[in-house]
C-alpha cells in the first residue's frame, strides 16, 4: 500500500492546515520574533530563541505538508464499491471479547485519529482488516493480549 495515500477529506483537511500555517501561524511567529527582538540583546534572549525555534518548526512542518500533498494518492471512499475491506472503508466490528460494536475507518497516516474511529492504513488493526469480508472472524494481537472480532458491516462513505 502506498505510504502517502489519503482520503479526499483527509487531503482537504491537510490543505486547510497548510493554508492556516502559511497565512496565520507564520504571521503570528513573525510578530513574536519582533517582540522578543525588541527586548534587547539577542544572545541572552530566551524568548527570542524560543520564537526562532518555533518558526523553524513551522517552516519544517509547512515543507513536510507540501511534500505529502504533492505526492499524495487521493482516494474518495464514496466512489469505491467492494465486498472486501480496502483503504477508505468504514468497518463495523463485533467485539467478541467485550461485547458491543466498534467502528473504524481505514485512512491515511496523516488523518488517523483513533478517538474519532479513524485508523491508519499502516496500523496493525488495519492490516488485519484489509481483504476481509462481512462475517469474517479475526484475531488481533494487541499489547493487552489477543482480541477477537467479527466483521459486521463494510461501507464506503
Structural class: alpha/beta
Q: Give me the Rg, rounded.
A: 21 Å
Mean of all residue-level pLDDT scores: 92
CATH architecture of the largest domain: Roll
Helix content: 25-40%
- At the first level of CATH, the class of the largest domain is Alpha Beta
Uncertain stretches of 5 or more adjacent residues: none
- SS elements, strand count: 7
Shape type? elongated
Beta-strand content estimate: 15-25%
- Report the span from N to C terminus: 20 Å
Cross-sheet strand order for the largest sheet: 5-4-3-7-6
* Superfamily (CATH H level) name of the largest domain: Transcription elongation factor, GreA/GreB, C-terminal domain
What count of helical segments does DSSP give? 3
Number of domains: 2
Largest sheet report: 5 strands, mixed
Helix/strand order: EHHEEEEHEE
What is the CATH topology of the largest domain?
Chitinase A, domain 3
Amino acid at each position: 500500500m502506498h505510504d502517502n495515500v489519503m482520503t479526499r477529506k483527509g487531503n482537504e483537511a491537510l490543505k486547510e492546515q497548510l493554508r492556516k500555517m502559511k497565512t496565520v501561524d507564520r504571521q503570528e511567529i513573525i510578530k513574536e520574533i519582533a517582540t522578543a527582538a525588541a527586548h534587547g540583546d539577542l544572545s541572552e534572549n530566551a524568548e527570542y530563541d524560543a520564537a526562532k525555534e518555533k518558526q523553524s518548526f513551522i517552516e519544517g512542518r509547512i515543507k513536510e505538508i507540501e511534500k505529502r500533498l504533492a505526492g499524495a494518492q487521493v482516494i474518495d471512499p464514496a466512489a469505491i464499491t467492494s465486498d472486501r475491506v480496502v483503504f477508505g472503508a468504514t468497518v463495523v466490528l463485533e467485539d467478541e471479547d467485550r461485547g458491543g460494536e466498534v467502528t473504524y475507518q481505514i485512512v491515511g497516516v496523516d488523518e488517523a485519529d483513533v478517538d474519532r474511529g479513524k485508523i491508519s492504513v499502516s496500523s496493525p488493526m488495519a492490516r488485519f482488516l484489509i481483504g476481509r469480508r462481512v462475517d469474517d472472524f479475526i484475531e488481533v494481537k494487541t499489547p493487552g493480549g489477543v482480541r477477537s472480532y467479527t466483521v459486521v458491516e463494510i461501507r464506503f462513505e
